[in-house]
Each structure stands twice: as structure tokens, then as C-alpha cells.
């Protein structure tokens, strides 16, 4: 028997879905779609409704209003048991009284699959996450990363239409986080799974996603590919949340085809205009896009307030006429001490953001 | 979608079996007797199923039930989302159950039960008795069709099992707690002719025998309400203080015999409370050992000082202090040492720390201990019975009103209401006093602090109180254990096995063994009833706990309050209310073993709920959710994930409900019958006949049996703990709640 995991991946669609707990609206009329076989992340600050959204996909919460579709089926009223969705919990939720094998085979056991088949498929699942031979252990006898992979295997072997992760990496140290997230992405790609992944770590989201859905206050602030979010943030909130952009006020002087001539505190740059009209605008300036020169060069005059050496680059906080700027400078051989005067120029990694207020 | 059909069909089959096959009315011989199968069933009207009765032209008011059974067939084959299927299930189930209950209450032994119905429909000319298996099964089946309908409509995420469980518990609590208590109210308002009348009620309520204050200014006795109240306050306060003293000695001093003190906590669980009173008589009664000694040595004449308030108070103090200790030791241990250390670094000395930080943090424990002592004292029936003399309290008065020559249900009901009023008042006061403030100082963080030592003089005082008290307890229990071996206590101290032979003699007769001892009957009944009720109590308690901890549903707060409330209803009140409610159709249960089982289930349910809630709150709910997302339904989740992880709590609930059923008296005394006599009721009867030898012998056997049960249980749980590997989740499990 050759099992191909994930052959049944299905899309997920939310149509104006609302979830209220009593008077409190945790998710407010949210619509989005996740394509079959792709990985989407839900990203946003704490309490914005990510977990609630995920739990509604799983059927652990039923929506108050709106419709939820998985593949062709309207699953709005279906409880978790009857949805073909698996979830990997932040706490892993491995059953402590069962062995690793029993944990991974649990989904088969409760559905009445013959023992031998359940065992075989559970073993394939364990092999897939690199835990062959760990079946007889108890969860308490595994390391944190191994437990995490058992939880993934347990969800994976059922070949769910959709696989959900709720901050799966937040219990791991930085190095392991990076490795496991690569592993999850690899498995997702090679098996063509539909994955919805919750995190509040923007780097993680950008690193693994086909699509990122940024949430704020129970609603979607913006959705798109990582590049779209980074380069064309819809508003101040998204620009601020994705990357450590410096948000400064600027003015579009003129528009010339795709490019706009923008004045930032008097210094002019030419950046993609995004169809914005002439007038006031916000500029999201990435820390690498602020270039510091010795005093006397052109550009804005500023003063270094703080300087820190981080091995691969230098970080500065610079006071300037347009406000405080956070700067990353890769020329580590030429450090500037705190208090030094600098001339500030801008590179081209600047995104214009509509200035709503 | 086939799942719904299967369950609908299952419940429908059950309901129909009740209607078509089993005797609709209760069998006179008892629930567990099956002689009727060979004795004229299915045609004999005494044993006939409903359908046979109807075909014979009897009980025509049962015809609509057949309609309610046919209706759900419409739902078969339709998806669960179809409004028609949902509506049919709701209607057939809900109206069906309502109709069965309604006709049961409306038509009784004299025909129409209510005069208004008779006026409306004319005399009935027919009658019916209590419901039996048939009615029970049909109503159960229809009821679960109703809950299925609710689930199909999307109640509680459409989870049929959970909706069914909620429905089940609401139903049984309503039937076996709220209905009987409401029935008391009705009885209290009823005249002897059955009409409702407020003036009669007030006449019965506002009498000197209940509320009189004569004792304040004369030598006559006060009303029983004040007697009970004063006693309960004195016992509540006394046990709380003494329990606190013990708890402080055990946790905060270097006292060597700590473990012995801890051992004391088991005693009240395995001792019927009135046994203490009995031992007091043997020691301090008119011909008691200590009395004789004093008379011989100092010429102090024997007196009756023990019989009255003092004696009852002393007996209850001895009986209930360990309960307070049990509650308080957990609380005292729970006060985080680092909080106390913080107080000390803020320049508070040991005494100030105790007064301003530690004691206030123990407030919930103190309130709880007081409430328990108060309720136990109010409900205690045995000690006032044995030691009260002329000092009468509500519980004994209720008993005499029901059982005695006066047989006055209305009076019993009024007295029970007064009793209930006091305990509910205490319950309410406790909740108010605690308010919403948080007193938890135990956190998941490791606490490396060392508890602050007690001020020297204070701990001296504690020793001076606790050590003599512990000695006294020891003397009492030795009396209980050895009193059964002397011929006639106080007069003839020759050693004998006579009492044991009288109680537990076994002779070899012509047909094998003959259980000739007088106690065997009640002993076997007690074991059987306790064994049956323990798993049921544990099951319903844990199911309630599961719903409270794990599910969100409409009206959950009311649900929680309802289950909590039963904890404040004294056993005496449960006893009377059962007599009043289940003496007549439709639920005729008095004189059966079932009523004993039911009373134990609902008396002890709070223990199971607390144990379950405590244990379940420590299980991360993502475990359940993981199981659900892996395709298990909630029943599979409970069976494979929740129950295995709760094993210690289940064992605890089982053993404690078993043991409590064996020691209970206050509700039991109203419900025993010649056929179903319980050990405690039997012993109390012997005590009234001054047959102290046999009583004490029987009591010690009971105590030893239960001690054995508890020990085996401790062993099992202990082993399990050792055998468990420590893991993040597994390590958190604990034995769960202690009994109330
Ligand atoms: N059962 C509940 N009852 C009431 N409010 C709830 C419940 N569950 C969540 N909320 C509220 O809904 C909001 C969204 O919660 P949610 O768990 O989805 O946040 P989140 O985005 O996952 O946050 P985090 O990153 O901190 O996990 C929060 O304000 C939370 O307080
Ligand atoms: Mg969350």
C-alpha cells in the first residue's frame, strides 16, 4: 500500500464570518480564501482573533454568523468531529497516558480502522517526521521538538483536507523554531497540504507562507503574499507590524507613470507610486533604506543617539527633522559613535502608505 | 447523516419496548423481582404493558403516548438539518415526556388528583398506581429523542451526547432534589384536607414550640429552631477553631505526632456520627466509666449533665472537628510561604503576619469549614436522638412528626422548611462573605519559601488545646472498639463475645449456613445499597463535573448553582421530602431499596462533582479538543482520553460515596423499611432499647469494614502514583478533591 498523504487537500473559504462571545465580538465579519495545497498564515497582535478564526475552521467554535466552506462543502454547522480537519495545538496536547504510537494512531482507532492498517499508517507518519522507532515511548520521554513532531504526525496521518497549526513553535528555542518551521514548510510543499498557520511572529509568517492574512481588532487588515505586504502595506498598522519600518510623514510632489517623486523632510526620492494622488502620504522606510553619511554630504542633518554592534550589522537610533529613525547599517567597519552628526539619505526600499488620518 | 437515524431508532426502540412489552405500572413485589414474567404477563392488568391495557379498554388516557411514539418515524431518513425532522423530535420527545408526567400527576389512586380536573371532566371512575419499568423506559426514550432534537438544532455545537447528558442531569436533579423540596413547601401549605392555605401554614410555623424564647427568662425550654440554630453555630464555630488549631499544629510546628493527627482525618469519614454520642454515654453517662471513677475517687455523684445541649455539642464537636481539619489543612498548606516572607521583609513580626496575611488568606477555608460544621450539626439526627434528653432540635422533631404517634406531615414539612431556611441562609452568607475576591496564592511557580514559625506563646496554646483533644478522641475510639467485648457496660465488665454472636452469629443448619445474627440483614442490605449507589454517584458526579468544566452552554450558571445547592440541603430535609414526594403515584418509591439508592446518589453527588471538578480543571482542555479534531466524538473522547486520566479521581469518588452511604443516617432514618433496613438505622434502634453492647459491637465492625475499604483504596492510588512517569501533563494529576 503506498500512501500519499495530503492527496485530498481542500480550500478554505470564509464568507462574512462573525464570532461573538456574549456581547464581545472576537471575529467580525471576516472573509478570505485559502487555496487548496497552499500555506496561509494568520498574523496579528495578541487578542486580535487568530485562534478564534482557526478554531472556527476546526469546528471547535461554531460561528455566530456567516458561512464557512471547506472545498465544495458548507461546513458552517458541522462540529469538529465531523470535519475533515486536523489541528496541531500550541501545547501539542499529546495524550500523556498513551505511547507515541497510540497517539499517532488515535484518529484511526476511534474511526474503527483495522489495527494492522492503523499501525502501518501511523508508522509511515512517524517516519515522515523523522521519528521512526520512537513509537513505544511515552510523550514525557521525548524532547520538546520531538513532541512537536509527534503532534504534527498525529494530525498528518489522517490526511485531513486542512491542517491547522496554532502557534506551533512558541514553546521552542530560536534555533529549533527555525528548523521546525522549515520542516513544516517542506512537508506541506511535498505533500501539497492545505495549511492554515497562526503566529504573531512576523518573520515566521513571511518565511513560510504563500499568503499572509494580517488581522487587527477582530477584522482583516490586509491579505496578500509576503512580498505584497512588505512592499505595499495597506495602511499604517500593517506597515508598522510587518518589518521594523520607520513611518514618517512625506509628500508626493508629482506622479510620473508608476513612479512618484516624494519629498521626505525636503529630501526627494523616486519610489513606486501605487496609484496614490499628489499630496500628503506616509513613507515606510525600511531600516536598511536609511543611509548614513559623514557630515557635510547632502541630505538631512541628524544626530546619532544610540549605537549598537550586533555582529553582522550595526543598529542606530538617529534623531532627524522627520522624527526618530531606526537604522541598520551593514558597513560594520565604519561605526559612528553616539552623538556624532550625520547626513541622512534614503535608498529605494521605501513603501508609500496611504495616510488615512 | 446516518448517525442521527441510528440514534433516533435506538431511543425509539427503547421507548416502544417500554410501551409494548414491559409492565407499565410498578410491580408490587419490588423493582428487582421478576415473578411477574410467569404470573399472568402480559395480560394480567397488574403486569400488563400499556398497549395491552389499552387494547383491553383500560386506562384510555394512555392512548396519546402511542401517538408520541409514532411521530418520530417521520424524522427517519431525513437529514438532521431538516427543520421537519428537528421539529418532530422536539415535539414528540418534549410533549411526550410532559404528557406522561402530566397524566401521572393528574390521575392517581383516587382518580383525578385535583378537584378542578374532576370539576372540568367529571368523575373518572378509574385509577392508576405508581409508574413502573414501562413508563420509565418510554419516558426515558422520549426524553432523549427530545435532547437529540435540541442537538440537531445546534444546541451545544450540535453534540448529541453533551446535550443528552445536560438534559439527563437537569432532569434527575429536578426530579430528585427540586421536586421533593417543592413538595415540602406544598405540604407545609396544605390543610389536613388537602386545600392550600396560608393561614394554616402560618399557624403551624409561628408556634412557641418552634420559635419560643422561654429559656431566656424562665426554666422552660426554648423553641426547637433556636435550639438547632444555637447548637449549629456553636458547633460550626467550635469545629472551625479546633480544626484550625490542628491544621496549624500539623503544618507550622515541629510537633512529632503530626502523622497521627493526619490519621484523624479518616475517622469521621468512616464513623457514623452518632457512634460518638454512644461512646460518650459509655464514658460519661450515668453509669459510664468516667462517671463511676469520679464517684469512687472523689465522691462526685453521677448526674445527667451529658444529656442536653452540652452532650450533643460535645459529641458533634468530636464527630465533626476532623472534617474542619480536613478542609483547613489544605487551605493552610495553600498559603504561599513567600507571601508570608514578603510580609516579614516589610517589618511585620510573626504574630502580625499571621493576623494580617495568613489568616485572611485562609478566609475561604474558614468559611467553608464553618458552613460544613453548621450544616452537619443541623442535619445530624443521631446525636440529638441519643444524647438530647429534653433538648430537642429540628431534625429530631421532624422525625417524630413523621414517624411518631403524632404523624403530622404538615408539621414535619414546616419544620423541614425552617431547617432548610437556616442552611440556605448559611450558604448564602458564606458566599456573600467571600465575595468575588481572589484568595488563591498557589501558583504554578515553584515556591521555595519557608513557612513562618508561629509565635511561641501561640503554639503553646495550640498544643494545650489539641493534645488533650486528640487523647480524648483516642479514648473514645478505644471505647468503641473494646466496648463490644464486655458483658454489660458500667455494671458487669466480664469479657464476652456475646454481642458479636448476637449480631453476627452464623450457625450450621439443616440447609447449610444460617445467618442467625440479628445484624446480618441490615449489614447485607447496607453493603448492597452502598455498592449499587457508589458507581452511580461517581458517574453522575463526574459527568456533571465534565459538563461544568468542559462545556459551555446556555444556563450553565443556573446549572452550577443547582448542583451546588443540593450540598446545602441537610439529609434530614432530603429524607422528609422523599417521604412526602415519593409516597404516592406517579413515583411510588417509599419502602423500596431504590429510594435509598437515589437518596444516596443525590446526597453524595456534590462530593463526586467536587472531586471531578478539581481533577478535571487540571487536565488541559486542548487534550479533549485534539481528540475531537482527530475525529473522535465526545463520548469516545471521554472514554479514551478523559476517563483514563481521571482514574484517581474516579476511585476517590467511588470509595467516598461508598463509605458515606454506609455511615449516613439523617436521610436514611426516614427511608428504611422492614425489608430494607440499613446498618445505621438498625444500630440506632438498638441504642433506643439501651442495647449498648450490640450497638457498639456492630459500630466497630462497620468502622473496621470501612477502614479496610479506605486502606485498599489508598494503596491502589498510591501505587498508581509511583508507577506513573512524570510528564508535563501527567505530573499535574492529583487525587482530586477531598470529601465534603
Ligand atoms: N471563550 C471566550 N469567551 C470570551 N472571550 C473570548 C473567548 N475566547 C477568546 N475570547 C476573546 O476573543 C479575542 C480573540 O481571542 P483569540 O484567542 O482569537 O486571540 P489571538 O489572536 O489568538 O491572541 P493570541 O495571539 O494572544 O493567542 C480575545 O480578546 C479574547 O479575550
Ligand atoms: Mg491565540
UniProtKB/TrEMBL annotation, chain A:
GO terms for cellular component: ATP-binding cassette (ABC) transporter complex. The keyword Transport applies. InterPro entries: AAA+_ATPase, ABC_SmlMolc_Importer, ABC_transporter-like_ATP-bd, ABC_transporter-like_CS, Mo/tungstate-bd_C_term_dom, P-loop_NTPase, Transp-assoc_OB_typ2. The keyword ATP-binding applies. Residues 12-242 form the ABC transporter domain. One of its GO terms (biological process) is quaternary ammonium group transport. Signal peptide: none annotated. GO terms for molecular function: ATP binding; ATP hydrolysis activity; transmembrane transporter activity. SMART domains: AAA. Keywords: ATP-binding, Nucleotide-binding, Transport. PROSITE patterns: ABC_TRANSPORTER_1 (PS00211), ABC_TRANSPORTER_2 (PS50893). This is Fe(3+) ions import ATP-binding protein FbpC. It comes from Thalassobaculum fulvum. The gene is fbpC.
Automatic annotation (TrEMBL), chain B:
The keyword Transmembrane applies. Residues 225-430, 523-713 form the ABC transmembrane type-1 domain. PROSITE patterns: ABC_TM1 (PS50928). One of its GO terms (biological process) is transmembrane transport. Keywords: Cell membrane, Membrane, Transmembrane, Transmembrane helix, Transport. It is found in: Cell membrane. This is Iron ABC transporter permease. It comes from Thalassobaculum fulvum.
